[in-house]
């Protein structure tokens, strides 16, 4: 990548091609009461800018929605050789695999990573994003919250290239998502083809984009294939404990399902443990399936049927897309398609059983 950046501006009050008034670097400098050179240094992360001045410039740039030419498409102005990664959490195999893929591409490109977690709190997400300003050349952000667009837009600097991962609304930013809806439909169809008719679903958090898409896929597949069957949905939180609680609830039910489809593997493993504690055999007494294909899924007994998301590839592809920008936009699809992996836990019964 080139180290310099060429900024093309329009005089204040002139319209851009999109019909909006174009804000220039001079406008930012005037509002912040600093020189144009200081604005440039602050936005590009140079060290020779006082932190108080940097924050004032960034605040004005945000308020005016100033965006340097090509800032959203390339990292040609990078100076720190560091990429920021902001995730909902760092715990668990999913995030470990995601970071492995991001780190591999970062090493290939000679870049460093600055990683932050906001523990599922949208307000802390905003604080983490603001803390990255001036320290990184680009951002990878996983923001799965539904209805979080306004807060996210307020926290993302218009001068900093960003790519969103598994987000409900990218708001014009480049994005890369997993096709959770399509994957859930494929899993339900597999369980139906195996002969299971009463299929329960352990859902994820209500405000999570992936969880909603997987629930929608389950419901639509069931409606299409068995229109007289009502969805059987249990609450979950994408962790082992909620899967374990769902499994216990199913064990105590007057009528048990033929199969259980958990919206992620961690809940499926918690459910599997509950069944094992109760002496229920999987898949002989009840079938089980998950989503994600975390490494542990192939080492439990019985091995877990799941929808494979190449999680490391998701992270690596996201960083490559951020770094390469529009150059490969036509070649890189906006969604990663999961693949059905059939193992022991889903079993096979006679059709109509």
UniProtKB/TrEMBL annotation:
GO terms for molecular function: DNA-binding transcription factor activity; transcription cis-regulatory region binding. Residues 23-77 form the HTH lacI-type domain. InterPro entries: HTH_LacI, LacI/GalR-like_sensor, Lambda_DNA-bd_dom_sf, Peripla_BP_I. SMART domains: HTH_LACI. Keywords: DNA-binding, Repressor, Transcription, Transcription regulation. CDD domains: HTH_LacI, PBP1_LacI_sugar_binding-like. PANTHER family: HTH-TYPE TRANSCRIPTIONAL REPRESSOR CYTR (PTHR30146:SF151), LACI-RELATED TRANSCRIPTIONAL REPRESSOR (PTHR30146). This is LacI family DNA-binding transcriptional regulator.
């Amino acid at each position: 990548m080139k180290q310099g950046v060429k900024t093309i501006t329009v005089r204040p009050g002139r319209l851009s091609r999109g019909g909006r008034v174009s804000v220039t670097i001079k406008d930012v400098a005037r509002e912040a009461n600093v020189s144009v050179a200081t604005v440039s240094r602050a936005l590009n992360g140079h060290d020779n800018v006082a932190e108080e001045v940097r924050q004032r410039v960034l605040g004005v740039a945000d308020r005016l929605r100033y965006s340097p030419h090509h800032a959203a498409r390339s990292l040609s102005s990078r100076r720190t050789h560091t990429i920021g990664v902001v995730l909902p959490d760092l715990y668990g195999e999913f995030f470990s695999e995601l970071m492995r893929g991001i780190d591999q591409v970062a090493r290939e490109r000679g870049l460093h990573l600055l990683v932050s977690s906001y523990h599922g709190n949208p307000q802390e997400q905003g604080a983490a994003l603001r803390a990255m300003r001036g320290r990184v050349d680009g951002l990878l952000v996983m923001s799965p919250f539904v209805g979080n667009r306004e807060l996210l837009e307020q926290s993302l600097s218009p001068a900093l290239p960003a790519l969103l991962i598994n987000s409900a609304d990218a708001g014009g930013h480049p994005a890369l998502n997993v096709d959770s809806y399509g994957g859930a439909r494929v899993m339900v169809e597999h369980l139906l083809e195996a002969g299971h008719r009463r299929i329960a679903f352990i859902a994820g958090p209500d405000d999570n984009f992936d969880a909603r898409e997987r629930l929608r896929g389950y419901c639509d597949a069931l409606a299409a294939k068995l229109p007289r069957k009502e969805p059987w949905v249990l609450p979950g939180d994408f962790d082992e404990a909620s899967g374990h609680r769902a499994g216990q609830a199913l064990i105590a039910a007057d009528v048990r399902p033929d199969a259980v489809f958990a919206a992620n593997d961690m809940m499926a493993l918690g459910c599997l443990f509950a069944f094992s504690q109760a002496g229920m055999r999987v898949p002989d007494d009840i079938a089980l399936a998950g989503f994600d294909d975390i490494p542990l899924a192939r080492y439990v007994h019985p091995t877990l049927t799941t929808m494979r998301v190449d999680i490391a590839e998701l992270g690596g592809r996201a960083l490559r897309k951020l770094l390469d920008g529009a150059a490969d936009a036509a070649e890189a699809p906006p969604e990663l398609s999961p693949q059905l992996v059939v193992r022991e836990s889903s079993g096979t019964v006679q059709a109509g059983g």
